[in-house]
Amino acid sequence: MTQAVIRQEEVANKRVALTESTWVALSRLKKPGKTFGETVADLIAEHQARMLERDLDAIDKNAHYVSWDKAKKDLGL
Fold first, then answer.
1. Residue 76 zone, left/alpha/beta (φ > 0; ψ -120 to 50; rest)
2. CA dihedral defined by 26, 31, 32, 37, rounded to 10 degrees?
3. What are 37-62's pLDDT values in tens digits?
4. Which pLDDT band holds residue 14 (cuts at 50, 70, 90)?
5. Cβ burial, residue 51 (10 Å; 0-12/13-18/19+)
6. E strands within the chain?
7. Rg of the Cα atoms in the chain
8. Per-residue pLDDT at 7
9. CA 49 to chain centre
10. Cα–Cα distance measured from residue 60 to residue 18, given in angstroms and rounded to the nearest whole number
11. 3-state secondary structure string across 12-33
12. 20-29 and 36-62 helices cross at what angle (nearest 10)?
């Protein structure tokens, strides 16, 4: 007999006050079948991806690179 695994979703327990214009803008971004929480989570993920890309571009432009072998040696790995 296999044991059933019960998956419990996170329960929203916070409220966020939004201005009417922000609510309208968020409503326009929300896709059918998605919750506002999922929409906000998607926006956060997109923002994090853009920030990572920006940071990596800055590193690529300004950084001094060393070989992985030298980095490992310098770090004692």
1. left
2. -60
3. 999 999 999 999 999 999 999 988 98
4. confident
5. exposed
6. none
7. 22
8. 52
9. 7
10. 38
11. CCCCCCCCHHHHHHHHHHCCCC
12. 80
